[in-house]
Amino acid sequence: MKKLTLLLILTLFATFGCEKLMKEDITLDDPDLQLFSDGLDADIGLSKSSINALNDALNRHGKNGKHRRDPAFLWKVAAELQGKLSNDEKARLLKWMDDNSVPYLFGSGMDGKARGGPQGDKGKLDIRSIYSILDEIQQESLKAIMESYGSKMRALQEQVKNGTLDKDAARAEFEALESAMQSEIEALLTDEQKQKLAEMKAQREEDRAKMAKAAHDAMVNALEMTADQESELETINNESVQAQKALMDKAKAEEMGREDVHEALKQLIIDRNSKIEALFDDKQLEIIKIYTALGMQYSKHCGKDRDGKDDGGRKG
Asked: How many CB atoms lie within 10 A of CB 276?
């Protein structure tokens, strides 16, 4: 009887395969996550056990729309898949990433933006927020102002195109027009509306700061980073930011040509990536690369709205 049972088991394994007997399919309720899973499988080719591991992670970390709000979502999934995917599957995933060109590998949660908080709006007005607090008469006035200055700015662009106005003169005129437009828009607002806008801006900055910290903390937890690694990563990012700023200043002063600036920026990114690669161990680097590839996959398969327009992919 035991021999018969063993023979039956071996026959079933040979007929249906080990994976099919050991695990049932794990399904996804969220259509975005299903698109993500199906797209990843189509592009990479995953075993049944890996698809189940992926879907299980997506269900736990992304259910109820959490994948749209939680900056830790892809970091958590990447950390789990690092130990679940086969070496061949990981190699195919990273090859797909390389084939689709990712010069700035260590971005999205690993650069200075992740810790620096909101960058501010550099004094410019948030037209959408302004429009939302205006009454109907003010809204019509705002539209008229925008149309008037928009027409003047387009005329400047045409002059630059046809060579009747040089870029330096055009830049100065653009800045003057922007300043004048801002003054006219501000003149529309009551004191109460100005206070409301200030409160809305403060709330946006607070929300961005929270999201930035959450993204940074998610990375630290997924990679199990040490305090020394956190500190060194911040130093690397700050140095890179300063070097890029210096290049942009040279470009503005026309001390470097566009092609030279482009090549110098590429080299800065390469140098930054090399320093970061030296900072992490093999497991951490693999999680980082899987995270980056998953972000690209998510943008490819879920980064469009129902009208087919790009919504920018995941914000987190």
From this structure: 21
